[in-house]
TrEMBL record:
InterPro entries: 2Fe-2S_ferredoxin-like_sf (IPR036010), 2Fe-2S_ferredoxin-type (IPR001041), 2Fe2S_fd_BS (IPR006058), Beta-grasp_dom_sf (IPR012675), Cbr1-like_FAD-bd_dom (IPR008333), FAD-bd_FR_type (IPR017927), Flavoprot_Pyr_Nucl_cyt_Rdtase (IPR001709), FNR_nucleotide-bd (IPR039261). This is 3-ketosteroid 9alpha-monooxygenase subunit B. Residues 250-339 form the 2Fe-2S ferredoxin-type domain. The keyword Repressor does not apply. GO terms for molecular function: 2 iron, 2 sulfur cluster binding; 3-ketosteroid 9-alpha-monooxygenase activity; flavin adenine dinucleotide binding; metal ion binding. Pfam families: FAD_binding_6, Fer2, NAD_binding_1. Residues 1-106 form the FAD-binding FR-type domain. Its cofactor is FAD. The keyword Cell inner membrane does not apply. Transmembrane segments: none annotated.
Length: 339
């Protein structure tokens, strides 16, 4: 079974419509909750007579926080956010998948530009705290909100700025004060930082505007986008289909958590299913090619992807693939989740 269990230790009311859940892994699952700054958890939520899943970013840092924390902002008509904000209390136990995602810096020593809108601050906060605690780079954060009352982590950001005045710059953009952010305003604010990699998260329209503006300035932009998952990724995978006569299975060497093992990979099967069936604790979430939770790096061999809405040309050039959509082209492959 791929599902993990986490107990809610505390519910923190960050703003009127944003709650943070402080989580404690079940004793037997503790080792499977390791995560990188900017990653997310997939949470199982009730849906009618069945179940669904929703992804929520971790705002905690693996370097500074003893427990994991996700922040959930209520969305009008949102299945998961409304259920969590209305029902989840301290002591409840949630089913989750292991932390995943590629919205994470390759080095904590790099200078970074972080841009967030609303609850998009959640993974950005994890990156920011981790870089300040474990790296040497400078961080600039541009954070857009409706008004002062809707600024999530306002006090924590103030304290971090006071603690790291030479390394952290925070600029708040409030709709009630400056109006909605515009490309011209963003170009002006981002101009000193265009030599840095940028990490952007927030509402879809906001991210599109920011990405277009920063790309036009020559910045390398990473974005975090979440989609409502259509299926229930917590369900066990379908039984393996028989390999057609005359078809040789590929072989894939998998590096994960410092260990290496080799498993057969039928050419008619997706990589994630082959790994899970072989007992490899591979991360995943949507199984639809929309979230990057299952992303890994192909070090040797060639694959095709049935679908891909999250990896850009640079990601693909760097060898990133989506395990839930990958099928083998070559007979022997090598992938890593430790890159």
């Amino acid at each position: 079974m791929t599902a993990l269990k986490a107990r809610v230790v505390e519910v923190v009311h960050e703003t009127a419509d944003a709650h943070s859940l402080v989580l404690e892994p079940a004793e037997g699952d503790r080792d499977r909750f390791g995560y990188r700054p900017g990653q997310f958890l997939t949470v199982r939520v009730p849906s009618g007579d069945g179940w669904a899943a929703r992804c929520y970013s971790l705002c905690s840092s693996p370097l500074t926080d003893d427990r994991l924390k996700v922040t959930v902002k209520r969305v009008g008509g949102g299945l998961g956010s409304n259920w969590i904000c209305d029902n989840v209390t301290a002591g409840d136990v949630l089913e989750v998948l292991r932390p995943a995602g590629t919205f994470t810096p390759s080095s904590l020593d790099d200078d970074l530009l972080l841009v967030a809108g609303g609850s998009g601050i959640t993974p950005v906060m994890s990156i920011l705290k981790s870089c300040l605690a474990g790296g040497s780079g400078k961080i600039a954060l541009l954070y857009a909100n409706r008004d002062e009352r809707s600024v999530i982590f306002a006090e924590e950001l103030k304290q971090l700025t006071e603690r790291h005045p030479d390394r952290l710059t925070v600029v708040h953009l409030l709709e009630t004060v400056q109006g909605l952010p515009t490309p011209a305003v963003l170009r002006s604010l981002a101009a000193p930082y265009t030599d840095r990699q940028a990490f952007v998260c927030g509402p879809e329209v906001f991210m599109d505007m920011v990405t277009g503006t920063l790309t036009g300035l020559g910045a390398r932009v990473h974005v975090e986008r979440f989609f409502s998952l259509e299926g229930d990724p917590f369900e066990e995978p379908e039984p393996a289909a028989e390999t057609p006569d005359g078809e040789d299975a590929a072989e894939v060497e998998v590096e994960m958590d410092g260990e290496t093992q080799t498993v057969p990979w039928p050419k008619s099967e997706k990589l994630l299913d082959a790994l899970l069936r072989a007992g490899v604790d591979a991360p995943f979430s949507c199984r639809e090619g929309n979230c990057s939770a299952c992303a890994c790096i192909a070090l040797e061999g060639e694959v095709t992807l049935d679908a891909n809405t999250v990896l850009d040309e640079q990601d693909l050039a760097d060898g990133l693939i989506l395990a839930c959509q990958a099928r083998p082209v070559t007979g022997r492959l090598k992938i890593t989740y430790d890159g």
